[in-house]
Write a structure and sequence with these properties.
- It is a single chain.
- It contains 18 helices and 16 strands.
- A 6-stranded parallel sheet has the order 6-5-7-8-9-15, sandwiched between helices. The protein has a 6-stranded mixed sheet with strand order 11-10-12-13-14-16, sandwiched between helices.
- The chain has 4 domains: 60 residues, Winged helix-like DNA-binding domain superfamily/Winged helix DNA-binding domain (Arc Repressor Mutant, subunit A), CATH 1.10.10; 63 residues, Winged helix-like DNA-binding domain superfamily/Winged helix DNA-binding domain (Arc Repressor Mutant, subunit A, Orthogonal Bundle); 144 residues, Rossmann fold, CATH 3.40.50; 171 residues, Response regulator (Rossmann fold).
Length: 506
């Protein structure tokens, strides 16, 4: 951990943690003394200084906490509205720097008096969650509020910097793939809007020549020391197996006293939290796979589906994410108020071997095109309708796993483990005359831009929302949605594109 030489310096370093975006667990005098290598009475003096400034609340025998973190009069109408607005700000429904709706919007929408709404907004202002600019209310602290050490606009050479740490440079390229690009785009855009820069570092260099990026602990630490007060914290992007000494890196980075975020994008390290790393500015940020699956089941149940088919693609069954998603579906299906029966169907047709590649995302579409060409060549005198019937018969024969779905007993919906599979299913169903959702419903997980044109309802993982929250940990201006252990999950959303309907009657 870092050192402090006196109470004033310890107070200054602790003060930086007390903005709304960093109001985590406040250390006791003993913990602070151990962290900053100072005497316990010196640490107590630093805490008292912050209490006198109105930043902390504590008394004998009580753990210090940031001032204003008590419940804001939840038993009053204004307090309840304040809590709702605060959660909306935390989740990004009202974004930092954006203008909030006029008070009349809440007077009408919340059936509240104007004085109640005005008091709720004043509570937001006292908590530095919103401020008034002329006649408008703007999300986030006002220009005079020292919520973040990075509030002031600065020339590029003086801007705060976030260190992005990856195992090797190639992982940066992985962030540009279809799955993770929404996260990276939103994260960097939000940093840029608040005039924060970033630099890339890597754990190791697999190349035979020297890398232009700082590599290893020594070079990364040297860069952070060179940045000095400009250093805003570190974002680690990795899977645990690619970063075997992740804990040691976090411990070293914690010594610089700035937030350390781990983007655990496939939710593979739930044990790595603040208790494990011993640092109260550590966050594990992850795609909430369990919530994605539970939201899918809740959506199916809400629409009245009691028996759901799940084609199990043999090609993808080798992938951990796929088996984990299907296993979660089976495990959670019986825990609903109205349980959903999951019926698995083997999907082992050879044509699915190409589903892993970008070109294979539309397996059924390409096969339908080929069948039309083949049948037309060998049946030049047949009408288009007759050719269509031949193609339909061939599709039913070549895709027995899909052909069986509408015939399964009381099956009213199909769950696709990802959006690429769902797009293939909806194309195939259309070609053979199965109407979605009139004959059978369809639901998937993932929300890729290229697939948005297809009528496939899906569960979006909401990487953009997670990226927004993560960026504001570094910016330090608004609270973030993290628990006491530093877990910051994504907030999945149901995206209705029309393929999920009520079960057919009769």
């Amino acid at each position: 951990m870092g050192h402090a030489t006196n109470a004033a310096e310890a107070a200054e370093r602790l003060r930086a943690r007390l903005g709304p975006g960093n109001a985590g667990r406040i250390p006791t005098a003993r913990e602070l003394a151990r962290e900053f290598h100072i005497a316990e009475r010196t640490a107590l003096k630093a805490l008292r200084q912050l209490r006198d400034e109105g930043l902390l609340e504590f008394s004998r025998g009580k753990r210090p906490r940031a001032a204003g973190t008590r419940s804001a009069h939840k038993d009053t109408a204004a307090g309840r509205l304040f809590e709702d607005l605060k959660q909306a700000i935390v989740k990004g429904a009202y974004r930092a720097g954006h203008i909030m709706p006029k008070l009349d919007y809440f007077v009408i929408g919340e059936h509240a008096s104007r004085s109640t709404v005005s008091e709720a907004f004043r509570m937001l202002e006292r908590e530095a969650l919103a401020h008034k600019r002329g006649r408008q209310w703007v999300v986030g602290p006002g220009p005079d509020h020292r919520a973040s050490p990075f509030d002031a606009a600065q020339p590029r050479g003086d801007r705060p910097v976030v260190v992005m740490l990856v195992p090797v440079q190639k992982v940066w390229e992985d962030l540009l793939n279809e799955h993770l690009r929404p996260f990276l785009s939103e994260f960097l855009a939000e940093l840029g809007r608040r005039r924060l820069d970033f630099v890339l570092c890597q754990r190791e260099n697999p190349l035979p020549h020297r890398s232009i990026f700082p590599t290893g602990r020594d070079e990364t630490a040297a860069l952070i020391r060179e940045l000095g007060r400009r250093y805003a914290g570190t974002l680690i992007v990795t899977q645990p197996y690619r970063f075997p000494d992740l804990g040691d890196w976090i411990e070293q980075l914690a010594g610089f006293g700035r937030p350390v975020l781990w983007f655990d994008y496939d939710d593979s390290g739930p044990a790595m939290d603040r208790r494990a790393v011993g640092f109260d500015q550590f966050y594990r940020c992850f795609c909430n796979e369990s919530r994605c699956v539970s939201l899918a089941l809740e959506s199916l149940s809400r629409f009245g589906h009691a028996r759901v088919a799940v084609p199990v693609c043999e090609t993808l069954a080798r992938d951990e994410w796929y088996t984990h998603r299907v296993d979660l579906l089976r495990e959670m299906s019986g825990h609903l108020e109205k349980p959903v029966d999951i019926i698995t169907v083997d999907q082992d047709e050879p044509v699915w071997e190409s589903i892993r590649t970008l070109e294979g995302h539309y397996v059924t579409s390409r096969r339908i095109d080929d069948l039309y060409v083949e049948r037309r060549k060998s049946n030049v005198k047949l009408s288009d309708a007759a050719i269509g019937r031949l193609v339909r018969d061939a599709l039913l024969e070549e895709f027995p796993s899909l052909a069986s779905l509408p015939e399964l007993d009381e099956i009213t919906a199909v769950f696709a483990a990802n959006q690429s599979l769902a797009v293939n299913y909806v194309i195939w169903f259309d070609a053979v005359g199965v109407r979605i959702p009139r004959d059978i419903s369809l639901l998937a997980i993932d929300n890729y831009l290229r697939a948005a044109v297809f009528p496939v309802s899906t569960i979006a993982q909401n990487f953009e929302g997670l990226a927004y929250s993560m960026s504001h940990v570094f910016i330090g201006d608004i609270p973030v949605n993290a628990d006491k252990r530093g877990n910051m999950p994504s907030e999945p959303e149901f995206v209705d594109r029309g393929s999920l309907g009520r079960p057919p009657r009769g």
